[in-house]
Amino acid sequence: MASRTPVLQGKIAIVTGGAQGLGAAVAAELDSEGALVVVADLNGDAAQATAESLSRGESAVCDVRDDAAVAKLVEDVVSRHGTLDIMVANAGIATITPFTEMDFDTWRSVLAVNLDGVFSTVRYAGRAMAASGGGSIITMASITGFAGSPLIAHYAAAKAGVISLTKTAAVELRGKGVRVNAICPGFIGTEMVLDRKAEFEQALGVDDFGAVIAQAQGRMGEVGDVAPLAAFLASERSRFSNGSTFVVDGGMTASLV
Ligand SMILES: NC(=O)c1ccc[n+]([C@@H]2O[C@H](COP(=O)([O-])OP(=O)(O)OC[C@H]3O[C@@H](n4cnc5c(N)ncnc54)[C@H](O)[C@@H]3O)[C@@H](O)[C@H]2O)c1
Q1: Which of 1, 89, 169, 221 is 20 to 30 Å from 161 by CA-CA measure?
Q2: Which domains are assigned to the chain?
Q3: What is the model's pLDDT at position 1?
Q4: From 59, 108, 192, mutation site for ligand 1 pocket: most ligand atoms within 8 A of C-beta
Q5: Residues with Cβ within 8 Å of residue 55, at least 6 apart in sequence
Q6: Atom of ligand 1 nearest to the CA of 192
Q7: 151-199 pLDDT, tens per residue?
């Protein structure tokens, strides 16, 4: 049987927050489809280890809260490789606090990464891609951007902002051949979620957070449930999708009970 040509052969990609979790899985998926992937992360050692696990990986230290650092990340990749075809704005953090007890610094700390960081990432990638004739930008939003999300008001507000920014960026850039789409996962079993299991259980007053999630979405999601969608959105196969939100949540947001 003839083998399939990888859909991202020769493409140059950046994945922010690519050192672990969803970002690392997306980096591996883009790599398996032929892209050269720059794994950009706050954690340089982990980014390097992830990049070394790829067939054509590179790593970069980048804090997406630092607008100038994001500009430099994009500039360096374009000057090294001549282009940027794919940007996955994935870096994100979460903390757990009831809304009424959340202090302003806690609110700002999550907005700084999850919304301001995405603004810088999409803006610089959009500029570079518009100048070179096109590309695909993918934001890692969340279903929390659609619904009330107890204990993570800052996170959910940021994700709602990411969904809005994704649509506006898509509309502004569509004349330049740049598409911008958002992925909205449900609960996926990465460190972000699993490390906070006990905190969620205590704050929600439940015995087993995993059982709560299983009731809502069938089971805890896996990074492999999400990563192939990123490769699809990065490729020309999704050429008629722009400014869209793609939910991957095991049916959680489809159900009222
Ligand atoms: N896990 C889930 O259930 C879930 C659901 C929906 C959306 N998401 C989103 O997916 C993305 C990845 O989450 P994850 O679950 O893989 O989390 P994770 O904690 O496993 O990984 C996050 C990565 O982002 C990096 N990072 C954090 N702050 C950064 C910064 N300022 N600059 C650059 N890199 C930074 C971390 O070093 C880490 O490598 C996030 O945007 C998250 O909000 C996750």
Answers
A1: 221
A2: 12-188+221-247 (3.40.50.720)
A3: 64
A4: 192
A5: 31
A6: 19
A7: 999 999 999 999 999 999 999 999 999 999 999 999 999 999 999 999 9
